[in-house]
Amino acid sequence: MHMKKKTLILVIIVSALFLGTVGYYFTPKTFGKNVNLSEVDHINVFDGNTGIGFTITDPKDIEYIVTNIQSFSMKRDGISLGRMGYSFKISYVDSNDKDIIPVFILNSDDTIRKDPFFYRCDGGLCFDYLKACEARFTEM
Hints:
Helix content: 25-40%
Structural class: alpha+beta
Number of helices: 3
Distance between the termini: 78 Å
Oligomer: single chain
Order of helices and strands: HEEHEEEEEH
Largest sheet: 7 strands, antiparallel
Strand content: 25-35%
Radius of gyration: 20 Å
Strand order of the largest sheet: 2-1-4-5-6-7-3
C-alpha cells in the first residue's frame, strides 16, 4: 500500500508539471504590455541583416512602435535557441540609459524572437516601419 501511494504522488507531480508547462507554452504573450510610454526616452535598434544600429528619439515614432508591439497577442511558436541571425534587435531605454524591458528581436511583421522561443501573430507588427526608420536615419 505504501508503494502505491508514492507512485500516485509521483504521477500527480509529473502530471502537474506537464500541464503547467503546456499551459505556459500556449498562454499568449504581449511584449511590453506594462511599458508606460512616458518612461521610454528612446529606442535602440540594431539591424542584424545590415549591421546598422540606430536610435529612435522622435516621440511620435516611439509611440507608434511601442503601441504597435503592445497591441498584438503573440503565441509561442517553436524554440529559438541555437538559431543564428535576426532582423531588428530592439531595446526600450529610459532617460537614465537603462533598458525598460529585456531586449527582444523583431524578425518580421508576424514574428518576435525572445529566447528561448519564437512568438507569432497573424501579421501587422511594425517591421516595415522600422525598415523605413532605418532608411531615414542612415540617409543623414
